[in-house]
Amino acid sequence: MKHFVLAVQFLTILPVKIKGEITGQSLAKSLMYFPATGALIGFLSGVVYLMFSFLSRDIAVSMMIIVSSVLTGALHLDGFADTCDGFYGTKPKEKVLSIMRDSRIGAIGVVGLMCLFLLKFVLLLNIPPHIFLKSIIIMTAFARWVQVALCFKFEYVRELGKAKSFMRYADKREFLFASLFFCALVLILTGITGLAACLISLLPLMVFTKRVKKRIGGMTGDTIGAGSELAEIFFLLFVTMFIKMQWIY
Predict the structure, then answer these.
(1) Which of 29, 72, 97, 176 reaches 20 to 30 Å from 38, CA-CA?
(2) Is residue 137 left, alpha or beta, with left meaning phi > 0 and alpha meaning psi from -120 to 50?
(3) d(CA 202, CA 141)
(4) Which pLDDT belongs to residue 161?
(5) Rounded to the nearest 5°, which phi and psi values hold at 14?
(6) Which tens digits make up the pLDDT trace of 151-165?
(7) 113: which residues sit within 8 A by CB, 6+ positions away?
């Protein structure tokens, strides 16, 4: 329970807090509960959607995106914007890391966020109402599972940073537990088609991670956040494609 609360504390602004010292090992163990915390975020976002759905779908989706961004403290959006700024152009590794460390957002980061919000809004509007809530829960859980996978697979390239303890102490146990929970959740909610959408979404994510590794040699908290945001977009994109091909009814 402690590590679940720690995951909620790190990934959201919900008023929960672990008392006492938090070790690097404890942070790594909380990775097991990242998909569950993602599902919680998706559920709460879905509640917001239902609260405003009596007005119109576009208003409900807009409010859901806004509230979910606040609920997560815009943590991964900040990482996405910093990654856009850092990786734009052909800058060397040291310059990329320096730009991502800068708290100020650049023009490319702003454009990236605008494109991200626009694409997410349009894709969400194309998800039919009868599978909307299930899709939101899976989307947010999938994005947090991707964070676990990135922490497990890649090295941290900075000397210091929030993500260092997660990546340093993460091992197979956390990854397997998170993966089993996530797969069970998807199969219960949508069956094999939802799991297929997640698996296919990993293909463009692999292209992204390969480029990141080539440029800076590993991951930072910002690039993990960017991967999380891209995971949501790719999942929604492939679910929309499945719907158009009548693989999801």
Answers:
(1) 97
(2) alpha
(3) 14
(4) 67
(5) -60, 145
(6) 988 888 887 767 777
(7) 77, 80, 81, 84
